[in-house]
Amino acid sequence: MNASKQFEAQGYTILPKFFEPEEINQITHIVDRIFNQWQEENHHALIEQQLINMHSLTHPNYFEECRHERIQFFNLIASAKLTRALEQIFKVDMYFHNTQLFFNPYSKEKQPYWHRDLQYSPIDDAVQAAEQHNMLSLHVRIPLVAEKGVELIPDSHTRWDTELERNVRFELNDHRQNEALPGSVLIELEPGDALIFSAQIIHRGNYALNPGRKALDLCLGKPHPLVESFLDPIGLPNDEEMKYICDRTWYDLSRKLIPDHN
Ligand SMILES: O=C(O)CCC(=O)C(=O)O
């Protein structure tokens, strides 16, 4: 099955050995520096709130002393190779929404939890269900260390929850968000692989099987009124930086979605 068909049917696809080791090294070098800064600034929250991710790695605060590295990072994550691959798979114009880095929680007590990404937004579940077929929000996962790190329910991107899934996602009727769900698939990735999955598929992380995790997720998608309003312009290249970006497709569209950039 090709990548388009696999995504259509299952809500995810893996591009094995997509990145060269040198690309992963360069991304890792920048991500490590950002992650170190973030950990210093969020040490207490990391422990007290049992955080499992950080976001907005392109925020200018992470590049105050190395501004050129921000342009390098924008170029590395939006490589011509990746933008072309997504064009071929999805045949729609994508915009760059944000970035996230997933890691293991500080404490082993924290359990992974099944969710659809927008369930933590103010958008009503019924509205999400009704708009599901009009939306395409993606995670493009670039694992920087090997992981069995994400588990998902194939096909749940095309339909809404079964009764059990709903009970588990919302912890209703004595169910818990970390219960096993039928039909789940645990994804195993090596550095160099790329995993593309729907942000609205039912999914959860896996911490226990991984001694350490470091997965960079690019959040991309087709513009849709429900999600566009969450786009934060601070994470986008500015006018000057745009001049040095080789493949501007995703960033051009993001900037068009921000009223001041029109
Ligand atoms: O990798 C993980 O820990 C969880 C991934 C996840 O929840 C997400 O990408 O929204």
Write up what this structure looks like.
- There is one protein chain.
- By secondary structure, the protein is α+β, with helices and mostly antiparallel strands.
- The protein has a single domain, classed as Jelly Rolls (Sandwich).
- It is built from ten helices and nine strands.
- The strands form two sheets. A six-stranded antiparallel sheet has the order 1-7-4-9-3-2. A three-stranded antiparallel sheet has the order 6-5-8, with no helix packed on it.
- Helix 2 packs across helix 4.
- The longest helix is centred in the N-terminal third of the chain and has 21 residues.
- The protein is globular, with a radius of gyration of 18 Å.
- It starts with a helix and ends in a 5-residue tail after the last helix.
- 2-oxoglutaric acid (AKG) binds next to strand 5, strand 8 and strand 9.
- The site of 2-oxoglutaric acid (AKG) has 10 residues, from strand 5, strand 8 and strand 9.
